């Protein structure tokens, strides 16, 4: 269940939000949305792949696991990476758009909300804390990232740069897992692009994130090794 409310310093003056990590806070997720401007930070730890939505469009995601509900970076209360995607950092906050700008919303039913040891959102005088200011910046970057992603995906499709892929993980004859339903950058087609196409991608700031997405696939091996370590002994 969710209970979204516009955040304000009267009703939510004493509200605190936990920044701890753990499955109990909803961190047991297989992937999270990302966007081109974030690829440089994301590719340092996670594979970046492209997921098809219900409307047939694509969205980039950082991959944390090989099956639903699995985060191989989550070890109890520890997230084993120095960077966590902004779409995860922003929980339990959302951005709402109005005619005059953005509003910060909060999901009051989220497990992070109401923890007495969590981060305060407002000072005694009603002003936002540094934590809330950070969240506002995160939401702003996410909103801009969602908008830039649409043009980026259209550029990839224009040049036929997305291809589906499958990853098989096998321990023995009775135990295996298969990752399906995702797309990656087709490196052969990328390398075959002519100068005009490469210049077009570069001028639109689409070339660098594309190479970042390609580089991130080196972490698929790391993901499989994490999977093996977690499940090899049952």
Give the topology, please:
Elements: E1 4-6, E2 16-17, E3 31-33, H1 39-42, E4 48-52, E5 58-63, E6 74-75, E7 78-79, H2 86-89, E8 93-98, E9 101-107, E10 119-120, H3 130-158, E11 162-172, E12 175-185, H4 187-192, H5 195-203, H6 207-216, H7 219-231
Antiparallel strand pairs: 1-9, 2-10, 3-5, 4-5, 4-12, 6-7, 8-9, 11-12
Explain the overall architecture.
The chain has a five-stranded antiparallel β-sheet with strand order 3-5-4-12-11, with helices on both faces. The chain has one domain. It contains seven helices and twelve strands. With 234 residues, the protein is an alpha+beta fold. It comes from Dyella ginsengisoli. InterPro entries: SapC (IPR010836). This is SapC family protein.
As laid out across the biggest beta sheet, the strand order is: 3-5-4-12-11
Overall 3D form = globular
Indicate the proportion of strand residues. 25-35%
- The helix content is 25-40%
First-last Cα distance: 33 Å
Number of strands: 12
User: In sequence order, what are the helices and strands, one letter per element?
Assistant: EEEHEEEEHEEEHEEHHHH
Note poorly predicted spans: none
The class by helix and strand makeup works out as: alpha+beta
Mean of the pLDDT scores?
Answer: 92
How many discrete structural domains? Answer: 1
The value of Rg in angstroms is 20 Å
Highlighted features:
alpha+beta, SapC, about 30% helix, five-stranded antiparallel sheet, 12 strands, globular, about 230 residues, 7 helices, SapC family protein, three-stranded antiparallel sheet
